[in-house]
């Protein structure tokens, strides 16, 4: 076990050391191959999961589609690589993928010691608990002595330990490698409780034979800002990924949608003109075409469209905007202005 951990640590260190050299080549590599390589989950409804035809959908998937639209002019020019929580950072550090968009929490440790940069937040989340209704539990404070299904390699492990220690409660962890395995363990009775980000719990609940048999408890025990990640050492690529997301948030605020973006090119609003590329040199500053943001909105939609299509109240997940509403609508989604 000690030798295995040492080998893993050495491999991770080597990946971090080579990250800057790989990062500097990202944009050229994407343009050269004509395809963006995007790391996603192994299957989480609403965020990144393949349909029966093998087509990937979800809000994390759409982040990568938006980047492809900005850089290549084609939102479909993306190769999706499914990764477990354990695999995701090494895949990015080693250059196997160009961007990681996989319900990944932005934390101090990840941002400062892994050679990575988080390029914004596409979903503000928090950790919660999923229990079967027949357990008769209405609050997380009633979970003393429970067995808890959890995915390895995630922030949820530490959060869970902190919460139970603080509350003076005991629990028995049942650890799995993938989210699918955790929900299967929960469904088969391997554990009393499934813990993860609340968004993930809503997605995993849809995989149960009877989703109505389980309920997400009200407690939120952590802050989980989720967003796309790139390698450190390439400011140009970092700027492209973060400003693509910012463009979608700004577009929603300005009322620019996939349906009206072409008409908005004749707008007299200076902020709209800069967004759609009819004024200023915003695209040139990123090394992209003048209409980069217009292509993002036309092909993928603004942030609100992306949210509602994948996880909103008309989807099986039925998630309200909450914190993910625009700052002007009572939420905390806020993007720097394009000017």
Automatic annotation (TrEMBL):
It comes from the Bacteria. Keywords: Signal, Transport. The keyword Signal applies. Residues 35-263 form the Solute-binding protein family 3/N-terminal domain. GO terms for biological process: amino acid transport. Residues 1-23 form the signal peptide. InterPro entries: Bact_solute-bind_prot3, SBP_3_CS, Solute-binding_3/MltF_N. Coiled coil: none annotated. Belongs to the bacterial solute-binding protein 3 family. This is General L-amino acid transport system substrate-binding protein.
